[in-house]
Amino acid sequence: MSTNTMPEAPDNAGRHLRHVLTSTAAALGVRGFTNQLGIPPASIGVVVLADGLGDQLLAAHSGHARFLAGAWRCRSSARILDTGAPTTTASSLASLGTGLSPGQHGLVGYDVFAPDVGRVVNMLGQWDDDVDPLTWQPYPTVFEQTAASGAKVLTSSRPQFRDSALTRAALRGGEFAGAETLEQRFNLAAEWIRSKRPIPGSLQRGRPDPLMVYLYVDELDKTGHRAGAGSEPWIRMLEALDAAISRFSRQLSHDFGEQATVLLTADHGMVNISEDCRIDITGRADLLEGVSHTGGEPRFLHLYAENARYTEHVAAQWRAVFGDQAWVMTRQQAMEEGWFGKVDQRVLPRIGDVLVAVHGELALFHTERTGDAPLKMVGQHGSLTEAERRVPLLELTARSLGG
């Protein structure tokens, strides 16, 4: 996309990450959902979320992920999805888990302003004790609705996410199995499926319950932040993921044939930012005049104005300094462009009065609020560049995707 024009609005109604679990539920026969993405019919549906594995990263490193690359190169088994705005884990996982746009589920960034408590709060791993996840995101999740239909649901993830605030807000419902390594998570998922579903040909009574499995892999994202996407440690982690998901998918196909489908997708991509392009705005009076709070993340800032009369002034100042490297929009402009999809009234004040979405090699930090630690991160995401917002959807049991 040209950096001289605003990015296209997220394709909320089309090939979007928010439709992955809802389409999988529909493919399992769960009523109330639409198979927007053409997931093949099955009675066992597994969705693997590889945090940080953008489509461009998979394309660039396909030689280190030969199993995934085989599906990625096949037109019938691969699609490119949009993740929406911002391209950050909390927002994307909430869209995946609820089937809603950020403007509805309300997790509109990494750090966002909470009007009820009057301060910026974290939406990922450090939720404020004064923020109730069930109030912040009140819509039912796909897991809750699927389990209520009679299907069996499992989340296989890290143990600390069992009762995390993000899980309670957007991924609640069904059973949970925790393991620290990605290999163990795949093993737990396989064991759970075998415990719920006899292998075809064995003695069983009646029609088996549909099974939905969500398997979360965050190793690539963590490694990319620390060492950079495409670094040697990152590539080793990609190879480990490819090997684990290859064994899992092939065994599931062998045991259950077309009863099972395995999908892989991601929540965002990642770009590497060199140290001299990581800019601290602390003390910049020209940028912070009229700003009461900063939020978001280094490539998608939310700027909250002291009052409405400062909004245009703040936007103009940021355009003057970063206009050649960032898209700067007011909240109203972003809503008109459809950046957050449909926006509920309760969510409006959580969105910055001014939004700064970086498209150049740049990351902007406010260390007075965040501390210095984020400055060390090499891999970054959050903005609406192709590298950050486009993610793969792969069917890994040799079945075709429609839609």
Automatic annotation (TrEMBL):
Coiled-coil portions: none
MF GO annotations: hydrolase activity
Residues passing through the membrane, by range: none
Protein name, as recorded: Alkaline phosphatase family protein
InterPro entries listed in its UniProt record: Alkaline_phosphatase_core_sf, Phosphodiest/P_Trfase
Annotated signal sequence range: none
Superkingdom of this protein's organism: Bacteria
One Pfam family matching this protein: Phosphodiest
